[in-house]
Amino acid sequence: MAQIKRESGGNEKIVQSSAVWDVNTAAGNPARGLLQYIPQTFNAYKMKGHNNIYSGFDQLLAFFNNSTWRRDLPYGRRGWGPRGKRKYKNGTGLLGHIGGDAILGDGGKVEPFLMPNGLLGLSPDSATLFPNLPKGTMVLA
After folding, report:
1. Three-state secondary structure call for residue 104
2. Which of 3, 33, 102, 110 is deepest in the core (most CB within 10 A)?
3. Of 75, 41, 46, 76, whose CA–CA distance to 61 is shortest?
4. Nearest to 69 by CA among 102, 27, 35
5. How far is it, in rounded angstroms, from Cα 24 to Cα 102?
6. For residues 19 and 31, is the Cβ–Cβ distance under 8 A?
7. CA distances from 108 to 112, 114, 135 (A)
């Protein structure tokens, strides 16, 4: 949330101001949207079927499709940029969970998940039962 506040103030339709002079504005290629992606970077990480750079949802899917998102996130202290590999070549899990009990956090990793109502969450980094996880919940890691 702190990074979104820093990047866009929560405005998913915002375009980088020309008053912010950097390599993007110098090239006429301003950053856009919730997490301020330039189109080339967004295209490198976007999930299949989620092509709208001005959609906060599509940008969040792209964000979590970066294998090093945890290390790349400065929690609002500075700008950011993805450095990891794309996790899923063609996207995965877009239909989401079938509904019912699910175990997240297995494998010793925190797993981000996005519920159909738009709530985003993180599992613990140990196997944890999520009873009655709603149908359509996407687990992103």
Report:
1. strand
2. 33
3. 46
4. 35
5. 42
6. no
7. 13, 19, 24
Joined together, the tokens standing for residue 4 give 């979104």
End-to-end CA distance of the chain: 19
Residue 27 in tokens: 């090239």
pTM of this prediction exceeds 0.70:
no
Q: What are phi and psi of 44, to 5 degrees?
A: -70, -25
Please report, for residues 21, 37, 48, the alpha-carbon distance to residue 92 in angstroms, rounded to integers and kept in the order given.
Answer: 36, 21, 8
Query: Which of 72, 76, 78 shows the shortest CA–CA distance to 2?
Result: 76
Q: Are 132 and 101 in contact (CB under 8 A)?
A: yes
Residues 76, 85: Cα–Cα separation, whole Å = 22
**What are phi and psi for residue 8, nearest 5 degrees?**
-135, -5
Strands in 120-122's sheet, in edge-to-edge order, are 120-122, 112-114, 138-139
Which residue numbers in the chain have pLDDT < 70? 87-95, 98, 101, 103, 106-107, 141
Q: What three-state secondary structure class fits 25?
A: helix
